[in-house]
Amino acid sequence: MLFKFLPNEFNFFDLFDKQVDYALSAATCFKELASKGAIDEGSLEKIGDIEHQGDEVAHEIFEHLNKTFITPFDREDIHALAKEIDDITDMINTIVSRLKIYNVVSVDKNLIQFASVIEESVRAVACAVKGLRSAKNFQSIQESCVEINRLENVGDKMRDVMLADLFDNMKDPITLIKLKEIYQDAETVLDVCEDVTHVVGAILLKQA
Amino acid sequence: MLFKFLPNEFNFFDLFDKQVDYALSAATCFKELASKGAIDEGSLEKIGDIEHQGDEVAHEIFEHLNKTFITPFDREDIHALAKEIDDITDMINTIVSRLKIYNVVSVDKNLIQFASVIEESVRAVACAVKGLRSAKNFQSIQESCVEINRLENVGDKMRDVMLADLFDNMKDPITLIKLKEIYQDAETVLDVCEDVTHVVGAILLKQA
Amino acid sequence: MLFKFLPNEFNFFDLFDKQVDYALSAATCFKELASKGAIDEGSLEKIGDIEHQGDEVAHEIFEHLNKTFITPFDREDIHALAKEIDDITDMINTIVSRLKIYNVVSVDKNLIQFASVIEESVRAVACAVKGLRSAKNFQSIQESCVEINRLENVGDKMRDVMLADLFDNMKDPITLIKLKEIYQDAETVLDVCEDVTHVVGAILLKQA
Description:
Three copies of one chain form a homotrimer.
Chain A: H1 12-36, H2 41-67, H3 75-101, H4 109-131, H5 138-169, H6 173-207
């Protein structure tokens, strides 16, 4: 009765494509910025804009989800997917803000390494999510998910080595506090990418 | 079949009203306490009691939710709403406990500022949640949600300025650790208030 | 009684038993390790293996959940239960990794105390979860849940006392950073155990 007046189908795939492109832009922007070791106002604003636009797409997805009766896959999976892609962009923006707030201006080799792994992982996330349009992409989606999981393990080990080194050698506690938080945040981005593979895995299984 | 034996309607609104009043009491108590800059045993106990009572209402909501067949809006939304209002009270209680544990006794101007924004935001949360009883409050609920979102942005910027200042000027790392965590927690309260607007927004959309 | 009427397409109980046994192994391993105050490579590897095996059982549960039409209790409760038992094992593994990364090698009386409470709590979690097979365990499940809640309160107070003591007496900020994080993580394990009681409570209520 209620549903009669609601649009009963909606193309969520176009919005997911847009959302995941924003996440990838954020990752690329972060990679460039890390290699320059300088947080200029321009990049800060750019990544803030990307985050804002990504946020709007997420809200569009949530709105359509609440108004749409027939969805391409389970509502909870659509919600979780939009939430987690949003978290990727958010977290990258958070790291860049912290670099500014903590006044970390020199090039940090560890951060360059992390930014590069993050960009690879978000690129694989984009492949997996964009593949969801069609069952024929099953194989390539699975390959992307394996790659994302591999990169999460790589990131885990990177963070552990970096933290052990930091606690061994950094004598200034305030610098230690800054870098510790930034490395942990960087690893969190890879965790969120892995969370995406869980949702994607659930979607594939249910369609199998 | 099973449902025949279950109470099939229950007035969740009364419980939400009670729960959100506890959240507001906690916010008001925190504001008073911040302006005094002293955590006496009395206020500590008072806020602990409020948290405990709020917790009991949350549990009552969860219990009724599991036993009730017909709910005024989606079960998942009722669950999320109760969880997030509970998180507001919890988080305020956590901040006050930390002030005690970290032995932060002097008046901190930043904290007074945060406590004031938090109280404003929780007041708007109370308006939004209490409005859910009737469709005629649609307009005022939306205004409250806009206000909560505005205050979250205010809090975000406040925290960033305070942290930048802290990292620029605080030379004692242990004091820095304490205040950094407290400012971040304070901002988290505003994030949780914003989470409430997402649930409220979903409820409004579904009823539209 | 209820379970009798459901054609159990898949026996989730066996997997939950396995999963909760891994959580308990992790807790026991952590307790031994804390009392030795030495993180040798052997225990580190052992707890890593347990975490990995627990992870695989969690994934098995998620996969079966996505493929099984009729489940012994609500799908969301099965998902939440598997997620939270996994979080217990994960968090214990995280603490042990941190001890290694932060090079915390001496025996810490606080950690021994925490490890002992954690093991008690995870043992009660195991009782509660294993009891879910049959309605006749209702009473003993409830007793386990009460015990888990009691231990969470104990842990809360323990952490507060330990942190207050740390901030009062520890003059080395880097050691303070390490121990603060480890005590907070230890308390988080007890929080996750308490989260299990919420899911278990919901399951019991729905079957009542």
